[in-house]
Specification:
By secondary structure, this protein is an all-alpha fold. Helix content is 67%, strand content 0%. The chain has 15 helices and no strands. The radius of gyration is 22 Å and the shape is globular. The two termini are 18 Å apart.
């Protein structure tokens, strides 16, 4: 399987989008976040809504594709020896260290726990018997949290499932089935069938199992995320279909724009009516919007990212570290800058600039230190 440069570019692009999205969460009116600026914007929700549905789903898709490449190269136990530490160590370290400033800012700014001294707050956060956190347990009897790092345990679980089933998927029993499916599949199948699957997932799971990111009782999120992971895992292994997506890029962009226009219409109170059919049509269009934008970005990535470059390789190596660091930096910088009342334009510009610069500086520092790089997803072959 040749390396797909478009996936490298898309991975960097979507992880970079997370920085802008989470900065936007400081300001979007009516959307809860760990910390909120003094300034808010109702109009900002229109832009936030654009990527809200598909940004993490696209990351699971890319991760599924990457897993296909890794297993094709080595499906032995070596896969686990590399994959488990790469995902588990940044998660554990993040819950104990990296995420703590976020918890501190949220607890104090929302007056959940009044503890102005950060070092003492860190101590009582780590002390699982502390009285201050007695009413704020998150994982059974513990009060640890992973905040934005929730992506890591989910990805780890999906990677383990795929590795465990990979020998069967590659067996002589399954090979004829995969060949028949490959012969039958056309691009319109790749467009329509995932939309139907996403709609069915929402129909049966969304109302009773809304997104929680707690892993244990997050069935709607699991079903949708794992579906996208599987789609990425399978689609990159069908080159005849994968290469055709680029030719459909304008079709994807136009239809995705139309579905997004309807989502804005519905978001602002618009309705197709009160009938059952109108309700389900609404759900189907929302499902279509998610997958159509994913296809749009994949297709345009194939068009734009045709060759690697030193900058792309550098960002691709550092993007995992940037992901681990970015939200903590956003919340800390916002917490420091908010009292200065810099204005609704200058403040976010400074925060975005500081976060981007901070990610690069910390990445360059961390990767030169012993032991520490593995806790931020930095390896020799990142």
């Amino acid at each position: 399987m040749p390396r797909l440069v478009e996936l490298d570019g898309l991975r960097v692009l979507v992880f970079g989008l997370l920085i802008f999205y989470h900065v936007g969460m400081l300001y979007v009116q009516g959307w809860d976040y760990h910390y909120k600026s003094l300034y808010s914007s109702e109009a900002l929700a229109n832009f936030m809504l654009w990527s809200n549905q598909w940004r993490m789903s696209l990351l699971f898709f890319i991760s599924g594709a990457a897993t296909a490449f890794l297993l094709a190269r080595d499906a032995s136990v070596q896969f686990l020896r590399k994959r488990v530490p790469l995902l588990a160590l940044p998660l554990i370290f993040g819950m104990l260290v990296t995420v703590v400033p976020q918890v501190y800012v949220e607890a104090n700014s929302k007056h959940i726990i009044d503890c102005p001294n950060f070092w003492h707050f860190w101590y009582i956060y780590l002390d699982q018997n502390s009285a201050e956190f007695a009413e704020h347990k998150t994982l059974g009897a513990m009060h640890l949290t992973w905040n934005h790092l929730w992506f890591l345990p989910y990805l780890l679980a999906y990677s383990l499932i795929t590795w465990a089933t990979y020998p069967f998927l590659c067996s002589t029993i399954c090979q004829p089935l995969w060949q028949k499916i490959t012969d039958v599949l056309r691009v319109w199948h790749i467009v329509l069938l995932p939309i139907v699957a996403i709609y069915i997932i929402g129909f049966f799971l969304y109302a009773n199992h809304p997104v929680t990111h707690n892993f244990v009782d997050d069935w709607f999120n699991h079903a949708r995320s794992f579906l996208c992971f599987v789609l990425g895992f399978g689609l990159v292994q069908i080159p005849s279909l994968w290469k055709q997506l680029c030719a459909w890029r304008w079709h994807f962009l136009i239809t995705a724009s139309c579905s997004y226009a309807y989502c804005l219409f519905a978001f602002h109170g618009g309705s197709l009516g009160g009938s059952w059919l109108a309700k389900e049509t609404n759900g189907f269009i929302w499902s279509a919007n998610m997958w159509l934008w994913m296809l749009t970005l994949i297709a345009w990535a194939q068009r734009r990212f045709t060759q690697s470059s030193p900058m792309l390789r550098y960002l691709n190596k550092g993007v995992f570290c940037f992901y681990v660091l970015h939200q903590t930096l956003i919340i800390v910088f916002a917490y420091w800058l908010t009292p200065l009342a810099l204005g609704p334009v200058l403040e976010p510009v400074i925060i975005i600039s500081l976060v981007g610069l901070g990610c690069v500086i910390l990445y360059e520092l961390i990767r030169r230190l012993p032991i520490l790089p593995i806790f931020f997803g930095i390896t020799r072959k990142s």
